[in-house]
Prior knowledge:
Layout: H1 5-21, H2 25-52, H3 73-79, H4 83-86, E1 90-94, H5 101-114, E2 119-123, H6 124-133, H7 139-142, H8 146-149, E3 152-158, H9 165-178, E4 183-188, H10 203-213, E5 217-221, H11 227-230, H12 233-236, H13 255-260
Parallel strand pairs: 1-4, 1-5, 2-3, 3-4
Helix pairs in contact: 1-2, 9-10
Amino acid sequence: MLKLVHLAECLPELVEEGARDDVTPIRFLDLVLEREIERKTERRIATSLKLSGLPVGKTLDNFDWTFQPRVDRSKLEGLATCQFLRDRDNVLFLGPPGVGKSHLAVALGVRAIKNGFSTTHFILDDLMHQLKADAAVPPARLKAKRYLNSGLLIIDEVGFRPLDRLEANLFFRLVSARYEKGSIILTSNKHVRDWPEIFASDEVLTTAILDRLLHHVHIIHIDGRSYRLRELDGLLQPQPAPSSPQAKKGEKPTQMQTASA
Length: 261
């Protein structure tokens, strides 16, 4: 009746364990409730990760800090506490392609879910498709959309193509709707001074977007080599020509070898 599904399944095992270890009734109650909470948390995290649209396998634990030593690790660990979400701050990752911006953004999204915050991840092009489909939806009905009501919205790959005027205005509407209500993590290969060229070359609109994004913000600049290209370094290096077979030490070349030479 209390929906303690996992506890209903494992209670005989827990009773046997409690009797064997001679635990007190209060400790036994703690034990069974802890087990139920752990399983509920595992199910919540698994469901939230599935609904979030986050790419799998990208966490702070498997980020290669040695490859990008310029990344401020202490700042990232501070963001991983999720205090920025409680304060409804934004986070901007800026830098050239391939340096780990998306990995770190997704990793913070995973950490947000583990800390109980709803999270939604979009590539910018996919987000634009969704926003254009909802352009005529009344504002009251838009409140149910995950890109508006999630505690954290991650927008990846901003700047790879310019937005047209309609898209730029829809982006502004989104940022305005979330302003001081929910956090945004955004990754971009463009410095903010170059953002007018992203948003339909409209400096007034770009200023309005930046005004809201940068009011409460943590900015992470990442410079360095691309992760995706590091494995190509060896392939791009000129390979030495294969050496000709050498005669064994002490052997005289045969008549055919002499003729070939």
